[in-house]
Design goal:
By secondary structure, the chain is mainly β. It is built from no helices and eleven strands. The protein has strands at about 1-5, 10, 20-25, 30-40, 45-50, 55-60, 65-70, 75-80, 90-100, 110, 115-120. The strands form two sheets. Strands 2, 4, 5, 6, 9, 10 and 11 form a seven-stranded mixed beta sheet that branches. The relative contact order is 0.33.
Length: about 120
């Protein structure tokens, strides 16, 4: 199995910055992608950003130019640098990875973190 541990959430004023981190551990054989989703109250979970094993990235339109996703392959860790935060960015942010384990090579699965709260408010 794969475990994901997130950190870095909190309360920040509009226009401020936060950096989320997510470290993957367990019986990892290879990581195909890591990324972040978020879910605001009474809303569906939505993709924020993803980074693939080759380094390509995708962002949802509302965060382009403000958020940057990056990864440290040696640490199996993904980061989300969030700048110019807005109240509408308030949500629980969930880390995910699509990975093969040593027991399921060629059959990747999605794994999720427990979520970290980001609140943007004055």
């Amino acid at each position: 199995q794969v475990q994901l541990v997130e950190s870095g959430g909190g309360l920040v004023q509009p226009g401020g910055s936060l950096r989320l981190s997510c470290a993957a551990s367990g019986s990892i054989f290879s990581i195909n992608a890591m990324g972040w989703y978020r879910q605001a109250p009474e809303k569906e979970r939505e993709l924020v950003a993803v980074i693939r094993s080759g380094g390509s990235t995708n962002y949802r339109d509302s965060v382009k130019g403000r958020f940057t996703i990056s990864k440290d392959n040696a640490k199996n860790t993904v980061y989300l640098q969030m700048n110019s935060l807005k109240p509408e960015d308030t949500a629980v942010y969930y880390c995910y990875t699509n990975a093969d384990t040593v027991y399921s090579r060629g059959y990747p699965s999605n794994y999720w973190g427990q979520g970290t709260q980001v609140t943007v408010s004055s």
